[in-house]
C-alpha cells in the first residue's frame, strides 16, 4: 500500500551550537520564547524531502524546534509523475508562465488532494503547509467540520506576477487558512482575506552545506570532478529549471570566455522528486553547452551532495544565481555566507539578500551579467570586500535562529 504521508526522519541538532554565530543573547531570547510553546505539536507538510529550498529549510528547522521543546514533525505527501507535472505547471503559472491551467488539471489536482484529506490524521496544534501541492487538503477537510489546529500556508514562490487563473485557483484555498507566510513584502499579495506574515528563509551555518571546509578538502572535491583550481570558476547551484536561467548563464559565460579563455563554468543541480521538469531541462542545458569541456554539469546523480556544494561554493571565483523569478534563492545566502561575490538576477527574494554594488551585483540581462563577471574577475579585491559584507548581512538576517523566532512569534499570535 502507498503511504500517502511519509514521516521524514531528521537528524538531531542543538540550538546551543548557534550561539557562536548569532550570539548568546539571541539564543536565550529564542529559548524563552519557545518555552511558551512547550509541548505544542507542529506539523510541516511538503511535497519532497530532497532537492530544492523547502527540503533544505526543514532539515534544519524541524530538529531545532524539537531541541527547543516543541514537538515538531515533517511529513511529505505522496504524488505520482502526473500529479507533480501538474503541480510544477501550477508553480510555473504562479511564477508568471502564460500556460493554460485546464479543468482536467484541476481534476487531477483535486483528486489527489481529496486523497490526502481522507488519509490525514490530525492531532497537531499548528500545521504549516508548504507551497501549492497540498494547499487544497485543508479546505477539503473543513467540508466535514474543523479538523483542529491552526493552519498556516507558506509560499516559497515568487508570485509577483502570477497568471490570473492560477492565482485565483489557489487563492480560494489559501483564504481558508488562519494565516499565510510570504518571503518578501515586495510581492506578497494584496487580495487575501487572511493575515499575512513576511518571513524570509534562512541558511544553517552548522549544516554540512555551510560549515567551514579547509582548502585541501575544497581542492580535493574540485579535482575529483575534473575542475581546474588554477583557472577561474563561475558557479551556479540550482535545479535545472527555466526560471533559474541556465541558458542565460551559458550565454554570459560565452561572452566572458572570449576575453578570459581560461574561465570555467560549473552547474550543480539536484533532481528534486517533485520536479519532473528537471531532467528535461538538464538535457536542454547540456545541448546548449555543446560538449564544451570547460562547462561542467554536475548533479546528485554523480554523487555530489552537501559537502560537494559547500566546496564548490567556497572555491568559486564568482557565484551566479541568474534567476528570472526566485522566491528567495537560498543559494545566494549560502554563497554570501562563504564570503563569495555573487551576481544574481534582480528578481523576487534576491534583492532582500543583495544590496546592489555593496555585497554583490543585481543584474537584469545576460550582457549585464557578463560585464559584472568581467569586472569582478579583473578586480578580485572588490569581490573580496563584497563577500565580507555579504557574510555579515547573512549573519544579521538569514541564519536559522531568526526563522525560528519568526515561526514561534507567528504561532503565538494565532
Ligand atoms: N542544492 C543542493 N544540491 C544541488 C542543487 C541545489 O544541495 O545540486 C540546494 C541548494 O544548495 C539550496 C537548495 O538546494 O540549499 C535550493 O534552494 P533555492 O532556494 O536556491 O531554490 P529552489 O530550488 O527552492 O527554487
Key attributes of the depicted protein:
16 helices; 13 strands; Rossmann fold; single chain; seven-stranded mixed β-sheet; alpha/beta; six-stranded parallel β-sheet; globular; 414 residues; binds uridine-5'-diphosphate
Structural overview:
This protein is α/β, with parallel strands linked by helices and 414 residues long. It has two domains: 5-202 and 399-413, Rossmann fold (3-Layer(aba) Sandwich), CATH 3.40.50; 215-397, Rossmann fold. Helix content is 44%, strand content 14%. The chain has helices at 19-22, 24-35, 53-67, 81-94, 103-119, 137-142, 164-174, 215-224, 246-259, 277-289, 306-315, 330-337, 350-353, 366-378, 380-397, 400-413, and strands at residues 5-7, 41-46, 71-77, 126-130, 150-154, 179-182, 196-198, 233-237, 264-269, 295-299, 318-321, 342-345, 361-363. It has a seven-stranded mixed beta sheet, with helices on one face. β9, α10 (277-289) and β10 form a beta-alpha-beta unit. The two termini are 37 Å apart. Bound molecules: uridine-5'-diphosphate. The site of uridine-5'-diphosphate has 18 residues, from α3, β9, α11 and α12.
- The succession of helices and strands, N to C, reads EHHEHEHHEHEHEEHEHEHEHEHEHEHHH
The CATH homologous superfamily name of the largest domain equals Glycogen Phosphorylase B
User: What is the third-level CATH name, the topology of the largest domain?
Assistant: Rossmann fold
Our count of domains comes out at 2
So how many helices? 16
The major β-sheet equals: 7 strands, mixed
Amino acid at each position: 500500500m502507498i503511504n500517502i504521508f511519509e514521516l521524514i526522519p531528521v537528524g538531531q541538532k542543538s540550538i546551543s551550537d548557534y550561539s557562536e554565530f548569532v550570539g548568546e543573547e539571541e539564543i536565550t531570547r529564542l529559548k524563552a520564547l519557545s518555552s511558551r510553546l512547550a509541548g505544542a505539536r507542529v506539523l510541516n507538510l511538503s511535497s519532497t524531502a530532497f532537492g530544492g529550498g523547502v527540503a533544505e529549510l526543514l532539515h534544519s528547522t524541524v530538529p531545532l524546534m524539537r531541541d527547543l521543546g516543541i514537538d515538531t514533525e515533517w511529513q511529505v505527501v505522496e504524488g505520482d509523475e502526473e500529479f507533480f507535472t501538474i503541480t510544477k505547471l501550477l508553480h510555473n503559472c504562479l511564477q508568471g508562465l502564460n500556460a493554460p491551467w485546464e479543468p482536467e488539471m484541476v481534476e487531477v489536482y483535486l483528486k489527489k488532494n481529496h486523497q490526502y484529506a481522507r488519509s490525514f490524521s490530525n492531532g497537531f496544534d499548528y500545521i504549516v503547509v508548504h507551497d501549492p501541492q497540498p494547499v487544497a487538503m485543508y479546505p477539503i477537510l473543513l467540508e466535514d467540520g474543523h479538523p483542529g489546529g491552526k493552519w498556516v500556508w507558506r509560499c516559497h514562490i515568487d508570485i509577483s506576477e502570477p497568471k490570473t487563473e492560477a492565482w485565483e485557483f489557489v487563492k480560494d484555498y489559501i483564504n481558508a487558512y488562519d494565516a499565510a507566510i510570504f518571503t518578501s513584502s515586495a510581492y506578497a499579495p494584496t487580495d487575501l482575506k487572511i493575515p499575512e506574515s513576511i518571513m524570509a528563509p534562512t541558511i544553517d551555518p552548522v549544516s554540512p552545506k555551510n560549515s567551514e571546509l579547509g582548502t585541501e578538502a575544497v581542492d580535493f572535491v574540485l579535482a575529483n570532478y575534473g575542475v581546474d583550481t588554477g583557472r577561474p570558476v563561475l558557479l551556479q547551484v540550482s535545479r535545472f529549471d527555466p526560471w533559474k536561467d541556465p541558458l542565460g548563464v551559458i550565454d554570459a559565460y560565452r561572452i566572458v570566455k572570449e576575453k578570459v579563455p581560461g574561465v570555467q563554468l560549473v552547474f550543480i543541480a539536484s533532481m528534486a522528486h517533485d520536479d519532473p521538469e528537471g531532467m528535461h531541462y538538464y538535457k536542454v542545458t547540456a545541448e546548449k553547452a555543446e560538449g564544451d569541456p570547460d562547462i561542467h554539469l554536475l548533479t546528485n546523480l554523480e554523487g555530489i551532495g552537501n559537502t560537494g556544494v559547500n566546496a564548490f561554493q567556497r572555491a568559486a571565483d564568482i557565484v551566479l544565481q541568474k534567476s528570472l523569478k526566485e522566491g528567495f534563492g537560498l543559494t545566494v545566502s549560502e554563497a554570501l555566507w562563504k564570503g563569495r561575490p555573487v551576481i544574481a538576477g534582480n528578481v523576487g527574494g534576491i534583492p532582500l539578500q543583495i544590496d546592489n554594488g555593496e555585497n554583490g551585483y543585481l543584474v537584469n540581462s545576460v550582457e549585464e551579467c557578463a560585464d559584472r563577471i568581467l569586472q569582478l574577475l579583473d578586480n578580485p579585491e572588490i569581490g573580496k570586500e563584497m563577500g565580507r559584507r555579504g557574510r555579515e548581512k547573512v549573519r544579521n538576517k538569514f541564519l536559522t535562529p531568526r526563522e525560528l523566532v519568526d515561526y514561534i512569534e507567528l504561532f503565538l499570535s494565532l
